[in-house]
Design brief:
- The structure holds 2 protein chains of 2 kinds.
- The model of chain A has no long low-confidence stretch (mean pLDDT about 90).
- Chain A has no helices and 13 strands.
- Helices cover about 0% and strands about 55% of the residues of chain A.
- By secondary structure, chain A is mainly β.
- Chain A is globular.
- By secondary structure, chain B is mainly beta.
- In chain B, strand 9 (about 85-90) and strand 10 form a beta hairpin.
- The radius of gyration of chain B is 13 Å and the shape is globular.
- Chain B starts with a strand and ends with a strand.
- The mean pLDDT of chain B is about 90.
- The chains are: A mainly beta, B mainly beta.
- The interface between A and B is medium-sized, with 22 and 19 residues.
Chain lengths: ~120, ~110
């Protein structure tokens, strides 16, 4: 069983730039969720993807967008980067079954984004 | 608004002492409750969830709907329990508290 992987591990960008973070879900999982974890805070839900469509979104502006691919991997895109976007970005995969809801989420190691 | 509160940023105990990490939630409906743990240099991982009613690594958590609490307990702390602990709740999206750092001294 392959766990959740994320790339890159670290990234440095400047204000106004755009960034793409990648996540490969655990085998057998069909749902991917993205979280932002600022220093000293708990993970904050950004959005979730299921069947290649956004399936729930937290309190984040539209410049945070995502994709899910047929193999269930996912990307998080952030446009017009701001200094406050500096954080650890976590991806989590899970299995959603209709009528049963979403099972436990399994987290990746995260991508550390620094915006200068 | 949906909210998970962990009032303690840091909890320090000696090995063998009892531990209780507090978690309160504010939710409409009946959320599912979780505890996640993050050991040093490791990824966030599930410790336990209330629906399974398991005891993992000696930890238990009881859901108290009247007090809207889901406190994590262990009767005898071990040094290897030192970690960040996050309480989470979900009806559709998983919301975390700010976390409590548990330090267990020898």
């Amino acid at each position: 069983e392959t766990g959740v992987t994320q790339s890159p591990t670290h990234l440095i960008k400047t204000r106004g730039q755009q960034v793409t973070l990648r996540c490969s879900s655990q085998s057998g999982h069909n749902t991917v969720s993205w979280y932002q974890q600022a220093l000293g805070q708990g993970p904050q839900f950004i959005f979730q993807y299921y069947r290649e469509e956004e399936n729930g979104r937290g309190n984040f502006p539209p410049r945070f967008s995502g994709l899910q691919f047929p193999n269930y991997s996912s990307e998080l895109n952030v446009n017009a980067l701001e200094l406050d976007d500096s954080a650890l970005y976590l991806c989590a995969s899970s299995l959603f079954l209709a009528g049963e809801g979403t099972d436990t989420q399994y987290f990746g190691p995260g991508t550390r984004l620094t915006v200068l | 608004a949906q909210r998970v509160t962990q009032p303690e940023k840091l909890l320090s105990v000696f090995k063998g002492a009892p531990v209780e990490l507090k978690c309160n939630y504010s939710y409409s409906g009946s959320p599912e409750l979780f505890w996640y743990v993050q050991y040093s240099r490791q990824r966030l991982q599930l410790l336990l969830r209330h629906i399974s009613r398991e005891s993992i690594k000696g930890f238990t958590a009881d859901l108290n709907k009247g007090e809207t609490s889901f406190h994590l307990k262990k009767p005898f702390a071990q040094e290897e329990d030192s970690a960040m602990y996050y309480c989470g709740a979900t009806t559709d999206k998983l919301i975390f508290g700010t976390g409590t750092r548990l330090q267990v001294f020898p």
